[in-house]
Amino acid sequence: MLPSTARDFVDTCWDQDLVARLSDYIRIPAKSPAFDASWAAHGHLERVARDALAWCRTQPVRDLRVQIVSLDGRTPCVFFDAPSTPGGSGNDRTVLFYGHLDKQPEMSGWRAGLGPWQPVLQEGRLYGRGAADDGYAIYSALTAISALDVAAVARPRCVGLIETCEESGSFDLPAYLDHLAPRLGQVGLLVGLDSGCGDYERLWMTTSLRGMLSGVLRVDVLREGVHSGNASGIVPSSFRILRTLLDRVDDSRTGKLRDPVFQVPVPQDRLDQAHTAGAVLGDRIWQQFPWVPRGDGQDSPESDRARPVAADPVEAILNRSWRSTLSIIGAEGLPPLDQAGNVLRPYTSVKLSVRLPPTADPQRAAQRLKAVLEADPPYGARVAFEVEGIGSGWNAPPTAAWLKEALDGASLAAFEREPVWMGEGGGIPFISMLGEKFPSAQFVITGVLGPQSNAHGPNEFLLIPYAKKLTRLIAEVAARAKL
Question: How do residues 100-112 score in pLDDT, each as one tens digit?
Answer without folding.
Answer: 999 999 999 999 9
